[in-house]
Write a structure and sequence with these properties.
This protein has five helices and no strands. The protein is an all-alpha fold. The protein has one domain. The longest helix has 25 residues.
Amino acid sequence: MLEIIRKYIKKYPLSVVCIALVWILSLTPFFPETPFDNVKFIDKWTHLVMYGGTCSVIWWEYWRKHQRPDYGKLGLWAWLMPIAMSGVLELLQEYATTNRNGDWHDFVANTLGCTLGGVIGILLIKFCPKR
């Protein structure tokens, strides 16, 4: 099992870092105030960018490492699993932390981010030829 984990860390290092950052940021108890705190829906925009960026990185690293895209695998691992992960994180925030709250609107923003990342990934594969 450890060898499989090492293989994926070696093959997809940026994706692993992005996923780890999402977990850390989602479960961190403290966030400092920022000048953007007054922006309407800044929390939702943050979720959308965080998940859209993560999914885009997953697609990009897959594109770099494979000759032909397997859209079934990509749909599962680069779209559906991040959405499922976001649901798990929202539930953990609600039921396993005392300082965070799960929010279904965050889950929707995460899903939109994953979908946007998927669209970016599809466009990358379709229109950016490999060297």
